[in-house]
Input
Amino acid sequence: MKKVLTAALLCAVSAFATWDYFPIKPAGKGEVKIGPEFFLKGDLTEIGINARARFSVIEGLEIAALLTGEGGGFKIMSSNDGNDTEITGLQQPVIGLRYWLPMGLGIFVDVGLPVSGEKFEGATQLNFKPGVQFSTKFTEELALGSEVGVLINMENGDTKITPGMELDLGVELDYTIGSITPFVAVNVLTGLTKPQFDGNDAGDAAELGIVPSVGVIFAINEMLAADASVAFGIGEDRYGDDMPITINANIAVSF
Output
């Protein structure tokens, strides 16, 4: 039972990967981001690298490839109480598609590909996350972005595990002061259906989790930017006694 629920949680964590909640770039423009991520939870410490790329194919339509996940999309170190867990390598990559409408509404779908490293047994399912986004600017400096998405997991044929469906609600506020943009955000996650093992219920739906985060973006010039953020997982029933903390930083190149 514990193995089933752990697998379900790993899959859910790796698949919430939409690029952001704000309008996409103009047609023919794109961006690449890369940077380290640190994940801390009790005695567990993980370090990895995130990498993302997006491109606006036509006006309003963006495609993206994202290598992200708990402790980095490519995990380079994982230890528990000082002992190497040997859980390293490629986590589940995601292909994303967003279409943005003129009235501040967007629709998207993320597809988690079942090509994780063999040690990420719980994140090898094919999954889909469709959803809608809304963004608006209150002033020239203050912008709001938001999202509602549902993660839909397919069965892992090797383990016969189907993690339950998850609801993801997110909102972010950005305030731009010259070349600096501080932001605050919060995600609310909750299970919609129970995980399944070989077609039968295998525990309760995932509990409520709240993930607040704060960060800042530095626009170096028209092509280069840097950002850093920290996020906390709140919800003892979902995360246990130890609050998970995620710290990441990125360098972004626009083209």
Q: What stands out?
A: The mean pLDDT is 89. The longest strand covers residues 44-58. The domain at 2-254 is CATH 2.40.160.40 (Porin).
